[in-house]
Every structure is written in C-alpha cells, then in structure tokens.
Write a sequence for this structure.
C-alpha cells in the first residue's frame, strides 16, 4: 500500500510538472518565409466579415486597421474608396468581397496583397458581477500576385484589462452596471477595436514591418 501511494505521488508530481512546463512554453515562431520572399509594399484591406450580432463590427474594425498598418510601413489603400468601389461593382457584403479572386482584386486595385479579416467578437458582455467589452479578430494576408498565403493570425483585447479589481460583491455589481452604461454611451467597442488592431499588427507573430518602416525587413 505504501509503495502504491508513493507511486501515485510521483505520478502526480510528474503531471503537475508537465502542465507547468506546457504553460511556460513560448508560442511557436511563425514561419515568415513566404512573407519575406513576397515583400508586399501596398495592402488592400477588405471589409471585415462580421460573425457577431453587432451590426457595427465591420466598420468599427475596418476604420481602425489603416493606422497601425500604415505605421508598420505599408501603403494602405483608402478603405472608404475600396468599400465604395466594391459597392459600385455590385459587391455589397464583406462575404462577397472575400470571395473575389485574388487576380481580379489585383487588376482592380493594383495592391500587392490583401488583408482578409473576420470579426469573431465585438461588443459588451454583461455578467453577474462584471461587464466587459471584447473585440476578437482573425486575419490572413494573401499575395494578390500569386494567390499565396503570406501570413495569418488573430488578436483579442478587452476592457477588463484596464479595470481595477473589486472584492466587494455589491461594489462589483455597481461597477458592472456603470461599465455597461459607459460602454453603450461611448462606443467602447470602437476603442477596443483599436487596441485589437494594434495587437494584430505588432504582437509576437504579427505582421512583419513593411518597406516604409523605420526598420524594414532585412534580406
């Protein structure tokens, strides 16, 4: 019996160590080989597909993407002009825009690559003792000259990251209500979308700097 208990303890220790090691392991570096070979300089940002109930998600995210991409060193085609051009040609939904052949997009807009974005979460979530605004997006960058996938990634941001912790349940409930009202009045989702867009570009395994960046990608 003693031997059995000793074995169980050892196995338990091994399991805990394995779990801690897995949690501590860094994410696998992204393979940027295709990205570096393609060297895209100009980007077409297509209207994001909205997979959320919030009707503001598409344009809330779209309007936040140009700045971080431009600051990263890319020429970004004006998103309003792109959206208007698509609508003029009968493409009225983001889903339809995402189905256009890469070569056709290249012919129309002349960009080197296109960024396809799917919005997975957008808006405020009210819980029993908390309220937070979450924006999550998944994206991929496709070479319009070859149709090859150059990069894909995802990013999430939440207003809870900026919230102070409360230990009193009543105070937490009041704070949750206040946060929810503030989110509705100030369109906090739009602000969080800006944070998410920056993370999509600058986080580890994000987009590489473009040719106009202060530190362009080296050969």
């Amino acid at each position: 019996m003693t031997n059995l208990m000793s074995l169980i303890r050892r196995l338990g220790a091994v399991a805990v160590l394995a779990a801690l090691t897995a949690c501590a392991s860094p994410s696998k570096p992204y393979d940027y080989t295709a990205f570096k070979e393609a060297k895209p300089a100009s980007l077409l940002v297509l209207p994001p597909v909205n997979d959320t109930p919030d009707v503001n998600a598409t344009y809330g995210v779209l309007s936040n993407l140009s700045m971080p991409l431009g600051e990263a060193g890319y020429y970004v085609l004006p998103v309003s002009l792109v959206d208007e051009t698509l609508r003029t040609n009968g493409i009225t939904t983001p889903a339809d825009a995402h189905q256009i052949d890469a070569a056709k997009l290249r012919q129309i807009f002349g960009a080197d690559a296109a960024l396809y974005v799917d919005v997975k979460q957008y808006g405020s979530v009210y819980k029993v003792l908390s309220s937070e605004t979450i924006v999550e997006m998944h994206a991929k960058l496709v070479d319009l000259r070859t149709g090859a996938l150059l990069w894909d990634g995802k990013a999430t941001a939440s207003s809870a990251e900026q919230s102070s912790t409360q230990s009193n349940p009543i105070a937490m409930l009041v704070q949750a209500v206040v946060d929810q009202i503030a989110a509705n009045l100030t369109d906090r989702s739009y602000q969080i979308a800006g944070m998410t867009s920056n993370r999509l570009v600058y986080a580890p395994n994000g987009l590489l700097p473009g040719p106009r960046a202060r530190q362009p990608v080296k050969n």
Summary: Confidence is low (pLDDT under 50) at residues 7-25. The first strand starts at residue 42 and ends at 45. The beta strands are 42-45, 49-50, 75-76, 113-126, 131-143, 149-158.
